[in-house]
Amino acid sequence: MAQRTTPAGGEPAPLDPTRLDLTADGAPIMWTVEETAAFLGLTRHTLDVWRSSKAGGPVYVKIAGNRVRYFPADVRDWLIAQRRGS
């Protein structure tokens, strides 16, 4: 079973199903680590380190024990939360 987890180990807010990106057949789109890294302009290694060290990063889902996926809505939410004023 898939489990959404935060890198900090806390419980993520429930994902609003109305915000999910869907495929043509209605299945939710989930990005791989590589796709997420490319979207954020990071390396896969950076995301791997963030997950393993609980140093931050977007909420992710672990499927079948070791496959990591990201919901695009979670990645966008995390990115927006990183904005800082000057």
From TrEMBL:
A GO term, aspect molecular function: DNA binding
Domain Helix-turn-helix: 32-82
Transmembrane segment boundaries: none
Keywords, sorted A to Z: DNA-binding
Superkingdom of the organism of origin: Bacteria
Entries under InterPro entries matching the protein: DNA-bd_dom_put_sf, HTH_17, WH-like_DNA-bd_sf
Protein name: Putative DNA-binding transcriptional regulator AlpA
The organism of origin for this protein: Microcella frigidaquae
